[in-house]
Amino acid sequence: MSFNQAVIEEFRANAGRVGGPFEGAGLILLTTTGARSGREHTTPLGCPRGPGGQGMYVVGSAGGSDRHPDWYRNLLARPLVRVETGTEVYEAVAVPAEGARREELFAHIVREEPGYGEYQRKTGRVIPVVELQRTHEAESAEDGVAGMLTRVHGWLRAQIAELLRLPAGESAPVGMQLRQHCLAFCQTLEAHHAGEDAGLFPWLAERHPQLAGFFRRLEEEHREIGRTQSRIAGLTRSGGDQAAVRAELEELSRELLAHLDREEAELLPVLRALTA
User: Fold this and answer.
1) Cα-flanking dihedrals φ and ψ of residue 56, to 5°?
2) Among the listed residues 130, 153, 150, the one whose alpha carbon sits nearest the alpha carbon of residue 140
3) First vs last Cα of the chain: how many Å apart?
4) For residue 179, what pLDDT is reported?
5) For the purposes of burial, counting CB atoms within 10 Å of the CB of 198, is it exposed (0-12), middle (13-18) or buried (19 or more)?
6) Looking only at Cα atoms, what is the longest distance across the chain?
7) Rounded distance, CA 249 to CA 261, Å?
8) How many angstroms from the chain centroid is the CA of residue 62?
9) CB–CB of 242/169 below 8 Å?
10) pLDDT for res 118
């Protein structure tokens, strides 16, 4: 068993408390999705708080290595992460701090935990400070598959609305806040549509063959929405213009909200009847 795996198992067995070199230290488990493999990877990390005890952060120190840690490269590609604090597990969007904000946070963290300053002195790279911005699951009064669908759709509606509230200049490169939230949204939407196409829709079509044409229409809408997603992902990853990203997000919002409304109008009565 690796050292990290031993810490992970002790953490989960003892509500986040571990001994050895981490005894008494603030520790979380961060689960990222491999940038290339698509597999989940869990890493024990220190979790310094920001000024005034606000916010939760992780620091890509890698012991002062000249190479960013794997978990950091993963969250740049797939920003939606899972956080375990010992008492709860939740989803977050990982957003690296930029510019003056990064300098302010790192200086605060070094005052609280001087070891991070030693790591920075060992390397020429700028050690990243990453904020873990918690997302909130949408609620549903329903159970079963109908409840699952309305919760996912509620999350998607809330997240696209939040994206459209993020600041975006008329002509400026995409910042980390907008970049990471865009990619996290696209990551979730893509997984949701893939699950419907491969699982939910075929399962329902077997029981309701009269809906086969409707499912074909939904799958085509998934492809159209996917093309918009791909444009957004390309612009955000390449540091494209914020105004162009905002225009694509507004188009995605129109496509997606109309799609969700159509899907719910047709499918929720069917799904509710399954559990009636």
Assistant:
1) -125, 135
2) 150
3) 48
4) 92
5) exposed
6) 67
7) 18
8) 22
9) yes
10) 96
| 3-state DSSP of 157-215 | HHHHHHHHHCCCCCCCECCHHHHHHHHHHHHHHHHHHHHHHHHHHHHHHHHCHHHHHHH
User: How open is the CA angle 139-143-149, to the nearest 5 degrees?
Assistant: 65
Q: Which amino acid is at 258?
A: A
Which two three-digit tokens encode residue 13?
């067995």
205 is written with which tokens? 């079509």
Cβ atoms of residues 188 and 155 within 8 Å: yes
Sign (positive/negative) of CA torsion 264, 265, 267, 268?
positive
pLDDT value, residue 241? 87
Mean pLDDT (10-residue bins), the chain, 276 residues: 85 86 81 94 92 92 95 96 92 96 95 94 96 89 90 94 80 84 94 95 94 95 96 89 91 96 95 81
Confidence (pLDDT) at 31: 97
- The residues near 107 (Cβ < 8 Å, ≥ 6 apart) are none
Side chain identity, residue 267: L
- The whole-number pLDDT of residue 131 equals 96
Entry field: residues in the chain: 276
- pLDDT value of residue 276: 61
* 144's tokens: 């079963």
| Residue 246 near residue 210 (C-beta atoms within 8 A) | no
Distances (CA, A) of 170 to 162, 237, 250: 18, 18, 14
